[in-house]
């Protein structure tokens, strides 16, 4: 059976989240006068990454709300007992720098153009609709997707099969007719494969993994490889027709 739809992860798949986060935190720490409190910018960024991953995992496990994980990330990073209002104000100041740095990866518009006529497109993200709707509109690709689903509203997050199956249900397609493209080999790759979708792991940085870890997944280094993997009849590489 051929693949009729592609469901996309957003952060670090379509959108350069890591690059934007690093640029934003560097600028934010300088603006807040906090650079001297860390051995280096690299050390500060690593502390922020650890805080983000820890509290995001708590959100994914249903232990805290989406808004709560943001506030707890700030408290964790600063190691301070802030009120909700204080933590929210700090995050909002960081977010100003973050949004300035938003950008799609350069291979995104070409592949969306190449697959526009042959496949339907949707988004499934472990975030919230408020966040990802705004992001996709700002990046100019919101209208490329007929369905946008996020964990905060679904009540289930990747890698749980229910999240992937909800995307298939929203498209009205069985899992074996849907491909999922994401950057995380376990959350995206294993989760999609276990749910019965064609699982495509975009490994932009050449991460290493065992053969066993790739069972059921297809690994690509660029989205330029996706049309061939899907067997799409496209002219990939033609200039983008989207503004």
What does this structure look like?
With 243 residues, this protein is an alpha/beta fold. The chain folds into 2 domains: 139 residues, 3-Layer(aba) Sandwich (Rossmann fold); 84 residues, DNA polymerase, domain 1 (Orthogonal Bundle), CATH 1.10.150. 47% of the residues lie in helices and 12% in strands. It has 10 helices and 6 strands. It has a 6-stranded parallel beta sheet, sandwiched between helices. Helix 1 crosses helix 4, helix 2 packs antiparallel against helix 3 and helix 3 crosses helix 4. The chain is globular and about 55 Å long. The protein starts with a strand and ends in a 13-residue tail after the last helix. The C terminus is likely disordered.
Topology of helices and strands:
Layout (H helix, E strand, L loop, with lengths): L4 E4 L8 H16 L8 H20 L5 H13 L5 H17 L7 H8 L4 E6 L3 H10 L8 E4 H4 L6 H11 L6 E5 L2 H10 L3 E5 L14 E4 L5 H5 L13
Helix pairs in contact: 1-4, 2-3, 3-4
Question: Which features characterize this protein?
Answer:
DNA polymerase, domain 1, 12% strand, 10 helices, 243 residues, 2 domains, alpha/beta
Strand content: 5-15%
| Cα shape | globular
Q: Runs with pLDDT <50, length 5+?
A: 235-243
- Rg (CA only): 18 Å
End-to-end Cα distance? 34 Å
Q: How are the strands ordered across the major sheet?
A: 3-2-1-4-5-6
- The proportion of residues forming helix, as a percent range, comes to 40-55%
Assigned CATH architecture of the largest domain: 3-Layer(aba) Sandwich
Number of helices: 10
Helix and strand string, N-terminal first?
EHHHHHEHEHHEHEEH
CATH class category of the largest domain: Alpha Beta
Largest sheet: 6 strands, parallel
What is the CATH third-level topology name of the largest domain? Rossmann fold
Structural class: alpha/beta
CATH superfamily heading of the largest domain:
HAD superfamily/HAD-like
């Amino acid at each position: 059976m051929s693949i009729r739809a592609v469901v996309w992860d957003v952060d670090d798949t379509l959108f350069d989240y890591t690059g934007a986060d690093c640029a934003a935190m560097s600028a934010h720490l300088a603006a807040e006068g906090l650079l001297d409190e860390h051995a280096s910018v690299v050390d500060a960024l690593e502390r922020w990454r650890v805080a983000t991953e820890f509290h995001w995992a708590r959100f994914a496990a249903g232990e805290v709300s989406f808004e709560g994980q943001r506030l707890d990330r700030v408290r964790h990073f600063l190691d301070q007992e802030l009120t909700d209002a204080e933590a929210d104000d700090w995050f909002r100041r960081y977010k100003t720098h973050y949004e300035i740095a938003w950008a799609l990866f350069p291979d995104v518009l070409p592949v969306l153009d190449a697959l526009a006529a042959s496949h339907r497109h949707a988004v499934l993200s472990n975030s919230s609709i408020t966040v990802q709707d705004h992001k996709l509109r700002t990046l100019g690709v919101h209208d490329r997707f007929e369905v946008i689903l996020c964990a905060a509203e679904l009540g289930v997050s990747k890698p749980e099969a229910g999240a992937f199956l909800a995307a298939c249900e929203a498209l009205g397609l069985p899992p074996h007719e849907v491909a999922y493209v994401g950057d995380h080999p376990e959350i995206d790759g294993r989760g999609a494969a276990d749910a019965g979708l064609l699982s495509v792991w975009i490994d932009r940085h050449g991460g290493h993994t065992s053969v066993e870890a790739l069972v059921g997944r297809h690994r690509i280094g660029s989205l330029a490889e996706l049309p061939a993997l899907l067997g799409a009849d496209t002219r990939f590489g033609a200039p983008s027709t989207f503004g």
